[in-house]
Design brief:
This protein is mostly beta strands and 107 residues long. Helix content is 0%, strand content 49%. The chain is globular. 32% of the residues are buried.
Length: 107
């Protein structure tokens, strides 16, 4: 279970699925732009099988259990998503195409 400072929580199931709830500030829940908040655990259905997750203040990093792909979403005010840009946010998980974490145990 992980929690972000901006009032959201997420957890990783034994089946490698990510569920989120709380405030969707700057895309922190990864559920798209149409949602402001979620009061019940909701699956982030756009993700593959996930090995580990970590939350920042209002951003998230996840590692795929299939191929070590690194997925990011949420606030990018300071470039914390690692996508080579500063500012804005990603409201759905984005694959970092230049980074693989095949030998990582955790984020």
């Amino acid at each position: 279970i992980e929690g972000g400072q901006d009032a959201f929580t997420m957890f990783l199931t034994q089946g490698h699925e990510v569920y989120v709830f709380g405030c969707h500030y700057e895309g922190a829940l990864g559920l798209g732009d149409e949602i402001e908040q979620v009061s019940r655990p909701t699956k982030v259905s756009t993700l593959p099988s996930i090995r580990d997750i970590a939350c920042g203040e209002s951003h998230v990093v996840a590692i795929s259990s299939d191929d070590g792909g690194v997925y990011v979403w949420g606030d990018n005010e300071f470039g914390q998503l690692g996508r080579g840009t500063v500012g804005g946010y990603e409201s759905k998980p984005c694959l970092l195409t230049k980074l693989k974490c095949q030998n990582c145990d955790s984020v």
